[in-house]
Specification:
The protein is mostly helical. The chain contains eight helices and no strands. It starts with 9 loop residues before the first helix and ends with a helix.
Length: 194
């Protein structure tokens, strides 16, 4: 008589997921460091695809939403069409896509830094005032560098991101759940012993 098969325990699945996540992070980090150009191209294409999908989503909302007024539907539809066009241009010219992405990141960091500085000066930040001001200043400076040197900024982000992925992957191995006695020993077939 064949032994009944049992499903793997959640413990084994969780441990396997943690190992797979760690290995994936390390491999992606190494790829980013070895082939930064290919990584940048992939980022550019993904950004372009994201723009196309987001634009199509806005167009669908413009045509199907009953909750929006006619004027707002037109606005959402026009914005959706513009975003689709930007996505198509980004896919056709990945360097343009990376430049747009660099500017989006730059303006985001600058505005975030200004907000942090203002919150620090007014004393309304959740962190100590000096820390909000310093982190805001660093964010504004980083945004300025990204704004005026977009190619260098994006390339630096890829390299730093590669090292961070490798570090996260290695650190993830230290979070592996310990093997328990139940998970390590296979179940004994009770029908064979009876």
């Amino acid at each position: 008589m064949a032994a009944p098969s049992t499903a793997p325990s959640p413990f084994v699945v969780e441990r396997g997921f943690v190992i797979a996540s760690a290995i994936s992070a390390i491999v992606l980090g190494i790829v980013a460091l070895i082939w930064p150009g290919a990584t940048l191209l992939t980022v550019a294409l993904l950004f372009g695809a994201f723009l196309v999908v987001t634009g199509i989503f806005r167009l669908v909302i413009a045509f199907t939403s009953n909750a929006l007024s006619a004027g707002l539907r037109w606005l959402v539809g026009i914005l959706g069409a513009l975003v689709v066009i930007a996505g198509v241009f980004a896919l056709a010219n990945p360097l343009l896509s990376l430049e747009i992405l660099a500017y989006v990141i730059a303006f985001g960091w600058i505005f975030d830094g200004i907000a942090a500085i203002v919150a620090g000066v007014q004393g309304t930040s959740a962190t100590p005032r000096w820390l909000a001001i310093v982190s805001g200043a660093v964010s504004v400076i980083a945004g300025g560098v990204m704004l005026f040197l977009p190619a260098l900024g994006i390339a630096t982000l890829v390299l730093v991101g590669g090292w961070i992925l490798i570090a996260i992957g290695i650190a993830t191995f230290f979070t592996l759940p310990k093997k328990s006695a139940d998970a390590a020993t296979p179940a004994v077939n009770e029908s064979a012993t009876a």
